[in-house]
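Morning, I've got a small favour to ask if you have a moment. The fold is given in discrete form, as structure tokens running alongside the sequence. I'd be grateful if you could look everything over and explain what you see. No rush at all, and the record is pasted right below.
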Amino acid sequence: MKRILLIEDDPTLSRNIKEAFTGDELLVETAFDSVIAEKLLRKEMYDCVILDINLSGKNGFELCQSFRQYNVVTPVLMLTAFGELEDKVQGFNSGADDYLTKPFYMRELLLRVNALIKRNERKVQAMQENKSVMADDIVIHLATKTVTRQGVEVMLTPREFQVLLKLIDKKGELVSKKELIKEVWGTAIDANTNTIEVYINFLRNKIDKPFGKNSIKTKVGFGYYFDAT
């Protein structure tokens, strides 16, 4: 079931919208002012936000703008009693995805919300399929399992790829030899072997040396880390 946050200060309209959405696989939660709305937006995850412009405290434009500082994914549909072009422009500039002027048909609101949710699901799926991890001038393409540095593709074996990804995922934190072995090899080999040192050396010869870099570093007795500076 999809979760909707309705931020509307008119209790009658809020109730009518909630009733109209009931039974359409949508769970509607409500907030009547910007203070409560902000707390919910920071604490919970929603599939869509319906946001009235005229609210006590922060107005809808301000609330949407602050929301977009930490969430650029969840679609926002703005409601307003005004149909002026300037209001629409301000709404979109604040980060809204759609705009509906009061009065409106409940069926149209429902259609627009469902369209926003479906469009966002496709966008999120595409982002996941094409997700890349970046550090310094290295780009790891997760979907294709390929690595480039300075725009040049670096050919890595599956094990080398996994070791590099683990180091970069830790964002500069130390990764012990034992942790790398467990992550990449499971329990298939003895943690006392020099396997990790061999693969770290392979990576340095492919990832660092050809590009004049020294990114993969060792802290003797502790492990390895990726230095993106």
